[in-house]
Amino acid sequence: MSTKLTMSFKCAEGSTFSCNLDDPLDDLTAEQVSTVMDDMILADAFDIKGGLTKKASAEIITIMTNKLF
Fold first, then answer.
1. What whole-number percentage of the chain has pLDDT above 90?
2. pLDDT tens digits for 51-62?
3. Interior CA angle at 23 toward 22 and 26, to 5°?
4. How far is CA 66 from CA 6, 19, 47, 63, in A?
5. Bridge partners, residue 55, by sequence
6. How many angstroms separate the CA atoms of 18 and 1, rounded?
7. Phi then psi dihedrals of residue 27, to 5 deg
8. Which of 50, 56, 51 lies closest to 37, judged by CA?
9. Bridge-based pairing state of the strands 16-22 and 2-11
């Protein structure tokens, strides 16, 4: 089983940008993720036309793999 944190942002031109991080901490809170997302927006951390304007969503996705052979 593996997990990933997906953080999605709205961009100035109307599109959505997502950032994925593998294996987030088990005790990660919504408040921590929200703070990091705010910091990413303020720092203009990605080279995206118009920049990131606001947080859209954040979710931890769990992936279960059943190997068949």
1. 84
2. 999 999 999 999
3. 145
4. 22, 26, 37, 10
5. 9
6. 22
7. -100, 20
8. 56
9. antiparallel
